[in-house]
Amino acid sequence: MSELTQFTITEQSAAYWTVTFNNPPINLVNPETILELQEIVGRIEASSELVVVVFDSAHPDFFFARYDLSRAGETPTAPGPTGLPTWIDLTTRLEQSRVVSIASVRGRARGAGSEFALACDLRFASIERAFFGQPEVAAGVIPGGGAIERLPRLAGRAKALEIIIGADDFDAQTAERYGWINRALPDAELDDFVDHFARRIAKFDRFAISEAKRLVNRAAVPPQPEALLESQTSFLKAVQRPEVRERGLRARSVAVEAGADFELRLGHYLGQV
Amino acid sequence: MSELTQFTITEQSAAYWTVTFNNPPINLVNPETILELQEIVGRIEASSELVVVVFDSAHPDFFFARYDLSRAGETPTAPGPTGLPTWIDLTTRLEQSRVVSIASVRGRARGAGSEFALACDLRFASIERAFFGQPEVAAGVIPGGGAIERLPRLAGRAKALEIIIGADDFDAQTAERYGWINRALPDAELDDFVDHFARRIAKFDRFAISEAKRLVNRAAVPPQPEALLESQTSFLKAVQRPEVRERGLRARSVAVEAGADFELRLGHYLGQV
Amino acid sequence: MSELTQFTITEQSAAYWTVTFNNPPINLVNPETILELQEIVGRIEASSELVVVVFDSAHPDFFFARYDLSRAGETPTAPGPTGLPTWIDLTTRLEQSRVVSIASVRGRARGAGSEFALACDLRFASIERAFFGQPEVAAGVIPGGGAIERLPRLAGRAKALEIIIGADDFDAQTAERYGWINRALPDAELDDFVDHFARRIAKFDRFAISEAKRLVNRAAVPPQPEALLESQTSFLKAVQRPEVRERGLRARSVAVEAGADFELRLGHYLGQV
User: Fold this and answer.
1) Would you say the ipTM is above 0.95?
2) H-type alpha helices, C136-220
3) Is the pTM value of this prediction over 0.80?
């Protein structure tokens, strides 16, 4: 079992874990994050008593900030137990797991961070502090980690296109109206709401929960691995285009001028690149 | 033609019927309810002038309360005209009928009661008095009457999972935001709104309505009978598990202590079992 | 290249066009409108630099009013480049185009006007001035231009049935809640919002946008041409029924009494026919 350096697992009980992401300074998703998430999914699958797992963040301004594009070339793609590349392997296993996964979002969830939340079963978010974005198109690439497959099912084609092509930030209430998340809650209530929900279902019958999820998965037609694979391949290829490097350089100069505000209002600044 | 003991059919006109459910004390759905609903669907199909049918309740606190699990072993499963077991037969025939069906919900619609509403074409509900729930998972079983197939299409996978696995009550406004119902209306406006809608379409051309519904059904991919059958079979099997009997006994002791409030706030009390 | 008589194309830049509909007195859609829209789609496809096109109206009370049923017999059906009849050809080409299309709706969008908006990728509308309707069923026909295929995917089966069978007008905020449009905006903000969005994406990388749209289209399962064809055929056949002529005569007498208000509140008056 590999050690975790970016995540802390807190066992609230045998049936209920909290997994907290902490990758200073801004919770960027990098190749190590992906490998650790895959390790965590393995531990979830291996636990015979686990019913529900909540993913949250140690940083109040960033849930999972975004993928570190400068390291996209190092993206792990070794086939996992499903035979699929790492990220697709871990997200589809999470989706198919008999354990219920919940993203409790405070701070920014962008790019692969939003896509990880989309692979969780449920998503709750702070009205005041959560923001969502798929900024890839503004960087000259496309979302390669599942947003293209999962957003249209939750938000419909038109809203998914607005999100993905507009590449802007969405506050939590708009994200709720668009179907991106289950619901937006006042920041002061988010933790209690999620904890109450998790403790409630942790007491329910494990068979009933896993059977319900299995049957919903069948009816809700989860994305096909081939579709996810085509998007990931398109992303990894697009990253290598010279236009992307050029846009990256321009973004960097905007970022230098904007300082810390750049990552806080990424959607805004990408409109200036 | 069998007699109806739990339902009253009021012919507002040849084109517009109201079907009122009345099964004191709390409008439980039991095996007889299912057989009478099947009879009603037969009458709907047999009427050559009917355009729209509204289902409502004689009890202001209960629309269709929930399935009487203590009689689950008596669930009728004789194949209907479609060749499918009773409940699946009647709900898919309602969905495919050229007549438009409307659930006008005042009071609780839980379990099979929610699932009957989901098989109607349209759902309107009272903001103050309507509540929705799929409490099955809290009882150790799963929704076997169509919620698993129909909710993900209306609410998306994430909200459907929250509803089904959380097994809690939803007020009408949240049910509207989640896609469970078409819209929530102030209690004082509900009857007039539904009546106005029904009278409006009752005057329209019957061919245009049935052709529109046929074409929408084709595009909206109604659930496959095999999927509905798998869920019903899973439910009928799950009901026989010893864990379910044990949870039932614990629920009964909570119910004794709670009194009449138990059925009014079922979602709340199931969290204490 | 045919001349345009009902539309003006304004090139805000090589990457961003505005196409304004102006067919006095009330922006009825007629056979010429369809042919000109097909010509416009051809120009959109032919432009190598175009990224985004916004469709709006010169008339503050009518976006695209509705189809002129009195000329339904002249509906052009010559196969376009896709081999499909004119309207299906142009709407599916718009949907598949690498260019992003936006309907900016002020005034009424009814019937084929709503269906054209539904074939655009994104829809934004004025809270005070935009209204949506599919009035066909009230006229004894059915929506034959894509609403039956596209509305259920955006709004779900139940809301799509309410819209299509009820044949009433929906204000922009209800249309937003129903998924008909991306979002409703205060009238004073609509133009700036749409212009800001269009200018933003016009600066993005064309490859990234078209690749994102291609991949979303794949995941969002756009309607099959055969389904669109079946609905159009059903519409063109239904128009010839004697009941439709009779309802048309009755509608005309209501219209004469109502004056200009008839087209402004079409949904209301169709309830009196």
Assistant:
1) yes
2) 147-166, 172-177, 187-202, 206-219
3) yes
